[in-house]
Amino acid sequence: MLNLNKQVKIKQLPVGIPKENDFYIEENKIPDLQEGFFLAKSQILSLDPYVRAVMSGRHFYNAPQSGSVMRSRGVAKIIDSRHPDYNKDDLVVMETGMQEYCVSNGDDAYFADTGDAPLSTALGVLGMPGLTSYAALLGPASIKKDDVVLVSAASGAVGSMVSQIAKIKGGKTIGIAGSDEKCSWCLENARFDFCINRKKDNLDEVLSEIAPNGVDIFFDNTGGEIQHTVLTKHIADYSRIIISGLMTQYNVSEAPPGPNLGNIVKMKATIYGFVVYDFEHMREKFINDVKGWYADGLINFKEDITSGIETAPSQFIKLMNGNNFGKTLVDVTN
Ligand SMILES: NC(=O)c1ccc[n+]([C@@H]2O[C@H](COP(=O)([O-])OP(=O)(O)OC[C@H]3O[C@@H](n4cnc5c(N)ncnc54)[C@H](OP(=O)(O)O)[C@@H]3O)[C@@H](O)[C@H]2O)c1
User: Are both 11 and 65 inside the same structural domain?
Assistant: First the structure.
């Protein structure tokens, strides 16, 4: 007989940085399986910053209500199936929600395929964050040899893959991260040529020194002051700007006033509102490329992983405080 399904639910929508008491754990019966559906046991849950934007009602997904199961993508193992395309023991990537068991008709699922890499990478370098970096660089940013690529939140799942893929494509990479420890990891493991500590260094002065002609690609994961400084003074002629994420805005109720984009015009730069879900057509090639690069020793990754569904809220809070270090995951195998 199956256990009850332990779920992380929203008590109230957070104001500012989410707090432990914005969430609660509830145990519920696992739903009966209907024809055309499968039942899966979550293995690893992915905690992602965009979920905070969804909670603020500032995302194209509908905002959750009090009592909703927290949103989460995960790797899950199918334990029972009445679906023609999915069998017991298949490992899938899907919207599991922050819960131990989930039922799906397969619409949002695909088979986990990580080659030589660990299963958890289906949520990191070989998952949605990896595809974000890959699709944006090879798609709208049109990376080419010798491009100078600047990326914020550099030690994260997205940022660290931006550097590694940019280096494979012959670029030079500069990261922006929030501590010396993160910067050292970026330099030693994610092949960054340079890393700026956003809490210690003067971004404007350092960029003037190390990228005097401006950056060709700015991959912005944070917005705010970093975006303002870079767009105002540090972009090159015909630069490409990927607005990928706005970490500075996810926890605030009111979005801050926008930057002055005059320099975008002056430098004939392209701004591209980037959403990874438009790039599903690149997934197969992305998985094959990254598996090959991983097998050749060209891809490193860092994970910030805890064990047990109960740790999911504190992991999410850590992520939203910027205190995570690497792809934030929760192991719910046991
Ligand atoms: N557009 C898309 O389709 C798409 C898809 C996936 C992810 N994203 C975006 O990519 C970004 C990175 O995601 P990830 O999963 O790889 O997370 P992550 O980088 O592991 O975690 C977020 C990082 O953002 C930085 N940060 C947090 N608060 C900040 C603040 N107030 N100011 C500046 N930096 C702050 C912190 O790093 P430091 O302290 O080191 O700066 C933190 O570790 C997010 O903005 C996410 O929304 C976009």
Answer: yes
d(CA 316, CA 322): 10
Which of 164, 180, 124 shows the shortest CA–CA distance to 303? 124
- Domain identity same for 254 and 201: yes
67 CA → ligand 1 middle, Å = 27
pLDDT, one tens digit per residue, over 78-131 is 999 999 999 999 999 999 999 999 999 999 999 999 999 999 999 999 999 999
CA-closest residue to ligand 1 atom 19: 156
Cβ contacts of residue 182 below 8 Å, gap of 6+? 154, 155, 195, 197, 325
Q: How many domains does the chain have?
A: 2
Domain range for residue 27? 5-124+301-331
Ligand 1 atom with least separation from CA of 244: 1
Instruction: Indicate if 9 and 74 belong to the same structural domain.
Output: yes
Distance 49 CA to ligand 1 centre (A): 6
CATH of residue 202: 3.40.50.720
CA-nearest residue, atom 43 of ligand 1 = 322
Tell whether 148 and 201 lie within a shared domain.
yes
- Report which protein residue has its CA nearest ligand 1's atom 26: 322
Kindly state whether residues 192 and 248 are assigned to the same domain: yes
pLDDT at position 260: 66
11 and 102 both lie in a single domain: yes
Which residue among 73, 158, 282 is best mutated to probe the pocket of ligand 1, counting the most ligand atoms within 8 A of its Cβ? 158
pTM to 2 decimal places:
0.93
